[in-house]
Structure formats: structure tokens, C-alpha cells
Amino acid sequence: MRHTGNTLAADTGAKLKDLMVRAGQSSERAQLIYQHSTKEHQRRLADDIDATVRSQRTPADRGSGTSATASVHRIVPPLAAPAGTARRR
Fold first, then answer.
1. Is 69 within 8 Å of 62 (Cβ atoms)?
2. Where do the record's region annotations for Disordered lie (predicted)?
3. pLDDT exceeds 60 at position 87
4. What is the DSSP-derived secondary structure letter of residue 86?
């Protein structure tokens, strides 16, 4: 239930500190154990970033027939370390 609750709350846009308070945790590390990313959330993030970039482009960037082009690349989160292993910093 903690994993599901934290993931659902995070998907609504809750900040890390808000999630920590809701779960009664005092450290970010403890909170991150129970919070997971979903494919749907990653897709929404990519779509929101795309919309932001497109809205901030100047008219000259929007394809007026010039050589100005833009590429949008999918953001892929880094792979998580296998359970029970620590990451080096």
C-alpha cells in the first residue's frame, strides 16, 4: 500500500517533502524506496516538456521555410540499480 499510495500521490504532482510528511518519513532515502515512476507518468512528462518547448519557440523557429529545425527527443530515465546493491556517487 505504501508503494501504491506514494506513487499515486507523486503522479498528482506532490513534492518530495509533501510525500515525506504524508508517509511519516524523515529522510528522502526512505521516501524514495516507496515511490516509483510509471510509464504513464513518464509519457505525461515528455508530452508536457514537448508542449513547453513548442510554445516557447519563436515564429522563425516554427518552420517558416528556413533551415531552422528542432528535434524533440524522448527522455529516458536511468536504469535503477538491482535491488540490494548500492550506487556509487
1. no
2. 51-89
3. no
4. P
